[in-house]
Amino acid sequence: MANMQKAIVYKGPGQFAYEDRPIPEIKNRNDVKIKSYGCAVCGTDVNIFATPQKHPCKQDIIFGHEFCGEVAEVGEGVTDLKPGDKVVIDPHGPCGECDNCLAGLPEACQHVSSRGVFADGGLTNYVVLPKQYCYKVAPETKPELMGVAEPLAGCGCALEKLNVHVGDTACVLGAGPIGLMFIALLKANGCRKIIVSEPIEHRRKLALEVGATRVVNPDTENLQQIVKEETGGLGVDHCVEAVAAMLVDCVYLVRPHGKVLQFGHDELARPEFPVAELLKNEIEVYGGYLGKYYMRKVAQIIESGILPLDKIVTDVIPASRYQEALDLAASRQCGKVFVSMDL
Ligand SMILES: [Zn+2]
Ligand SMILES: [Zn+2]
Fold it and tell me: Would the keyword Zinc turn up in this protein's UniProt record (predicted)?
C-alpha cells in the first residue's frame, strides 16, 4: 500500500511484531517529518522485553526511543531545519507550553512524552515530531553514533552535578554502554584515575579503550581494597553507579565528602542503605536520569568527535533482525548496539 510503512511494534511482555502502519504527515506548523536512520538498543528496551518485565511500555506503539534520522519535510513554522539535515532526537521532548517549560525548566516539562516507550517511536521509516525534539548535527556524522544522543544526554547532564575537575579520581561501577559513556566523559573532564568495576571481560577491555586507567573484575578481585590502594587509602572523589543495584557499594568507595551518582536504573531495586557511613563521611548522593536540556550540547559533542563513541558503539544490526539485536544487548557481550533501518 502506498501510504503505509513497516514498523517494529511492541506487542506486550516479551513480544514485538513487524506491522504496517500509516506514514505520518505534517499536521502542525512546527512539525518536522524525519526519515529514521534507526535506533540504538537501550538497557530500558532490554528491561521492557525481559521476563518478568522490568520496565513498563505501552502496547501497540511503534517501539524504539534512541533514534535519529534525516529531515524529510518541515512545517511552515520551521526555519532552522531543512530537508536533508541530519538530526538527533530527544524522545522526551518538552511541550514548550506548560508552566515549567515557560519557566525555562524543560527538563521538568509536565507533559513529557516518551517516544518509543509510551508513544510511537523510531523503529520505522518516517516519524513526525515537533521541532523542539530535533537537534541538527554536522552532515558527516555517522548515524550509529547519532543513536547515542539520548543516553549520552542523560549521562552528561547527570555528570555536571558532580562538578568534576582536572586531576580528580573516579570509580565507575559497570561498563555497559552507560558505564562506557561515563568513563569517556570522566576522561574528557580530566580525571587522572578512572577505576572501573565490571565482571564481563569483553566490557573491561572496552572500558580500557575508552579511558579507564584500571579495570577490576568484582567476581575475583576486591574492588574496595583496590580503590584504596589507587587513592592512597582515601577513596575516590566521584563514584558513578551504572549497574542499578550497587548504590551501597559506592558509599564505601568515595573519600570523605566524596560524591556518588546513581544512574543505573532498575524500577525494582530497593537497596538497604548504610546511613551512618553516609552522614559520618558527609557523602553527597545524586540521582541522574534524563538529560533534556542537554540535547544541544550532546549534538555538539557527537559531531565534534571529542568522545570515542566509535568504540562505545560496537555493533550495527539491521532492523529486519531486531531480535538478534535485543539478544545481543541482553547477553552483555557488546557495547552499544545500533539497529539500522532496512524495513
Ligand atoms: Zn534509552
Ligand atoms: Zn512542558
Answer: yes
**58 CA to centre of ligand 2 in angstroms:** 21
Task: Domain count for the chain, please give it.
Answer: 2
CATH value at residue 103: 3.90.180.10
297 and 276 in a single domain? The answer is no
* Residues 257, 298 share a domain: no
Q: How far is the CA of 154 from the centre of ligand 1 (A)?
A: 9
List own/partner pairs for 244-252 with CB under 8 A and 24 or more apart.
244/269, 245/269, 245/271, 246/173, 246/174, 246/271, 247/271, 247/273, 247/285, 248/272, 248/273, 248/274, 249/173, 249/223, 249/224, 250/171, 250/173, 251/277, 251/278, 251/281, 251/283, 251/285, 252/224, 252/277
Whether residues 70 and 55 fall in one domain: yes
From ligand 1's centre to the CA of 45, what distance in Å? 7
CATH of the domain at 189: 3.40.50.720
For ligand 1, a single-atom ion, the residues with CB < 5 A are: 42, 44, 66, 151
Domain residues for 131?
4-151+291-340
| 133 Cα–ligand 2 center, Å | 12
Q: What pLDDT digit, counting tens, does each position of 297-330 carry? A: 999 999 999 999 999 999 999 999 999 999 999 9
* pTM of structure: 0.94
pLDDT in tens, 92-149: 888 888 999 899 887 788 888 789 999 999 999 999 999 999 999 999 999 999 999 9
Whether the pLDDT of residue 292 is over 80: the answer is no
